[in-house]
Amino acid sequence: IKFKIKIINMKLAILTTLAASAAAFAPAQQSRVSTAIAGDARSPDGLGIDPGPLDFFDPLGLAEDTDSFARRRAVEIKHGRISMAAFIGMMVQELGITFPGSLDLKGEVPFDSVLDNGMGFPALSAVPTFGLVQIILFGGIAETVAMPAGQYTGGPQDLPGGYDGSSGTIPGGYPGQIEDPEARDRALNVEIQNGRAAMLGVTGCMMHSCLDSCDHHFFYPITHA
């Protein structure tokens, strides 16, 4: 039963992401007013307006705070990109596909053993301490050197969440840039919408993994007493 529930939860997460992706690829409304960057005038940067039923959804009025909006947009895009990669990674690992070998030099912690107690937060407890230090160090370098957290726009077109490389860490260059403003803004909106769906999807997956892990640790001693 637990396996069936897990499969159903995974299917629901995938369907949620696909639905958001379909909404992101829906044609834009022609009656909207365009700004200088061919976007929606209701958004400070012309981006992020859902082409689907949500349309302009800002219950907290964050779009009105134009002074801090650039930071919020850059943070949203960055978190969305990380979540899209994380969601795909979680789906791949659910299929039992992991790296060969071990996490440590001694070979005592195989990669496939990290998921023994569940995915997401429970898996962190299976990672060796030095491995966690490496993750934190990598994130710190990425946030301060490779893709500085204080850089809200960038790249050849100075777009939100854009980066044009960093000397010694990430090669620069944007191959295949979209020059047409309307096509470019549509692609940027697709990325934002898919990132939002992925943030919800990966959060849901981690929560369900925690619940499965809690059920296992709580019921296992009872059923094997």
Automatic annotation (TrEMBL):
Coiled coil: none annotated. Keywords: Chlorophyll, Chloroplast, Chromophore, Light-harvesting polypeptide, Photosynthesis, Plastid, Signal. GO terms for biological process: photosynthesis, light harvesting. Residues 156-180 are annotated as: Disordered. One of its GO terms (molecular function) is chlorophyll binding. Pfam families: Chloroa_b-bind. Chlorophyll a binds at E76, H79, E191, N194, R196. It is found in: Plastid, Chloroplast. Residues 162-175 have a biased composition (Gly residues). This is Chlorophyll a-b binding protein, chloroplastic. It comes from Cyclophora tenuis (Marine diatom).
